[in-house]
Design goal:
Length: 304
Amino acid sequence: MSELYKKSGVDIGEANSLSEKLKLLGADFKNFVGEVSCGSIKILNCCDGIGTKIIPLYSHRFFRTIAIDLVAANLNDMATKCAKAVAFSDYIAVNKLNSASIAEIILELKKVLDEFDCKLLGGETSEMPALLKDGAIDICGFAIGISDGNFMPEKVTDGDVIIGLKSNGIHANGFSLIRKLYSGGKLSLEDYEECLKPSFIYYDCVRKLWENNLIKAAANITGGGILTNLVRVIPENLKPKLDFSLIPKQNIYEKLFKLCGDECYEVFNCGVGFCLVADEKNCDKIFDICKGFEPFVLGKVVKK
């Protein structure tokens, strides 16, 4: 159990308990995106924010990074299905509205979405001094995608390979713990600034994999770490068998493992921002399409 994370204010155990309680609502509450059929088309929807990483990003006026992280959180979820993201809305809540700063965030958000041919439809900005403490801000995004309702990927089977795509450091997860370690003097200013790098957006390359029928499943590695997210896309009679020593080394994780030990695997992506499940015969093609993210075999799917 993540005791350090709990001491920083985030209780993973309680979050897992909530997930168990919501199982009765069906498979959509396990998936990274929900979907509904509309004739021959499936409409997909997902929602995500960037957590407490927005606190340092907003105070440093890193508005483009806020936009990139928000798009990454949602479009990487959308990439777990064979879908095209077509529209996006945002929700911003603040204690006190600063129109210049909020306008700049939204303008940057539109620029990033334009790069992926996804239209920003608008959103909501809410000023709530009675609810949020002085200086507080939060941001959330909602993505809408479409897919061919007839597309059915091959089923994940025993022996399939699990491929990892390298992360750009911390991305936007575990920042309550990162901020606590920094404020307690356990991470240097240089370490902290490294954690503020924008998240990688895997959406384009993963879409190409789906379009070429090269993968069977995909998982966005966000809060909860590698295993918690990966098992969401693997059938219950199977399990992932991973070799964490194969993950490319990153300086920030070398330091976090010294400070947090194996708890890192429950909180952070540990250097793996996205996972793919595929037939081993497709590895070369997958590696070529995703070469910008330094793909590597992380493990295999095996029987329980």
